[in-house]
Every structure is written in structure tokens, then in C-alpha cells.
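Q: Give me the 3D complex with iron/sulfur cluster.
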Amino acid sequence: MSQQSTMPTVVRYFQKWMTLFPTVFDLAKAKEPNVLKAWEGLGYYSRARNVLASAKLLDAKLRASKTWPNSVEEWMSLPGVGDYTAKAITAICFEGKQLPVDGNVIRVVARLLAIDDPLNSSKDKAQLIEAVKQLEVLASSLPMGDLAQAFMELGSEICRPGALADCANCCLSRVCLARARDVQALIPQKKKQREKVQLESLALAYRKGDQILLRQIPKGRRLEGQWELPVLNLEKAGSSIKSLISDHFELRAELTHFITHHQYRAFWLEAGLWRGVLPAGHKWLNLEKWRHFDGSLSTLTRKLLILVEKQS
Ligand code: SF4
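A: Here is the predicted complex, encoded as C-alpha cells.
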């Protein structure tokens, strides 16, 4: 949950999640729509599917062998578990000896050794990896989980990004090269951002009485299984769709929505009455009761529904 979301947001979701699925066995028995519903609003839904798939595999393993996986390789074999998560779990829970390297570790180690650009330069990245390996050897008799959490705390409370480093109160200040050279605010250099792709989306609101049409996102598409207003995505070319169509159609709500490096300008377009038969993979949503919808709504659709609700 915390990979792409801030902690204050995560805490609320985590508490609810642990009430619904208190153990890995409870989660393994859960139905995917219920898991996606509990995740609704956090985005990046493949993570929720991966957690569920991993819970099923862990459930089977625990029932068969009664032992938890305890190596980085075993954890990395689970869906969605990458190098950082596997090392964090094994270091904190199973006395693993590899240090999970997150943004905090990168920042602190890069500053300690004054490595300028580990995020963009392969030479600096290799130097940082080598430094972490040496650290693992030096700290091999210590609990690696404690060291990992010490780095997390140091990085978030003291050795903060940019000019916010609190070197005067840092336990490493006497050995820190960046501080000695007074370049801590410049290290590590910012990761070069991918260029933003601007898109415009028309979310089509087909109506039948108090209801609007939703479609389920089909398999193979991002956010598969979620429900959304039928959406047309158009690459932005010169002038905005808004200026082209607002004279002819009612655009009731508009918002900006970011997904990775895509920036969507989304418009709620009143598309008129639906007169046809309801196609497969579509449902009617009662606008008055949309918050009680039993499926998982895409974040873009939820944001648009909130905007339209405010206008009513
Ligand atoms: S002395 Fe400053 S830059 Fe160096 S590790 Fe401590 S807080 Fe970070």
C-alpha cells in the first residue's frame, strides 16, 4: 500500500484492510472483487491482485510445510514482490542479511560518500551498490532489520531530501563527505523525469432515468475488472477538445488526473439517453446511491462522480 501512497492515506486503508483480512488465510479465501473494493481509491490495482495471488500461494505453502518462506529468492517468487520488499521482509522478519535499498538508503549512502548522481549515472549507481555491499559485510553481525529501519528513520527524520538535511543533529555528521564539502543539498541529484504525455478523456454519461451506464474494464487492459464510465482517450493535439465540443455538448465536470507519466484532462460529457439493450459487461449505476455500488469503481470515475454530486 505504501509504495505509491502517503502514510496518512495508507493508515486508514491498512486498518480497514486488517479488519477485513486479519490473516493471510483470511485474505487467501477472499474474492477478488472484495479485495479490489477494499483497495478502491489507492490506485495501481495490480498491487491488490498481486497481494491476493501471493496470499493464496502463501496459504498453500503454509498448509503444506508449516514454514514461512525466509529467503529473498522465495519472497521474490511471489507475484508483485520485488527486490526491495523481499529484502525488507527477510531483514525485518527472518534475520536476513541483505539491506533493502530504498530512497532513504540511497540518499544517506550517497551523501556519506558524496556520490553525486546514483539515480542517473550508471557509474555512480555502481559505486552506490558497492558501498551497500560493503555495508552489509560490515554490519553482518548486527540485526539487519534494525539497520534497515534505522536508515528509514534517519532518511525521513534527519537526512531529508534537498536543503532539509538536519546535519547538526545527525549521528553520521563527523564522517559524512557531503557535509564536509557542503554539498548535501545537491546529493543525490534528482531523477530525470520521463516526459509527461498529455491526454484528454471524454467520460460518456449515458442515462436511463436516475441511472448512468457503467462498463467493466475488460481483461488485458490496465485496471481490468473495475467499473468506469465509458471513456474515450484522445492524445492532446494543439487545441483542447473542450474548445472544440463545448458549444455542441454539455460538459458537466472536468478534472486533471495523473497516472504515472500520463496527465489526463477528463471531461464528463452528457451523452444522452441509452435506448439500446444493455450490452454484456455493462451495468446501470444509480446516481443517488453510487457510493453503495457493489463493484470497484475506477479512480477517474469516482472523482467525476464526486464532482457531479457536488453540482447537484
Ligand atoms: S551529515 Fe547531513 S548529509 Fe550527512 S548523512 Fe547526516 S544528515 Fe545526511
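A quick observation: The chain has a mean pLDDT of 91.
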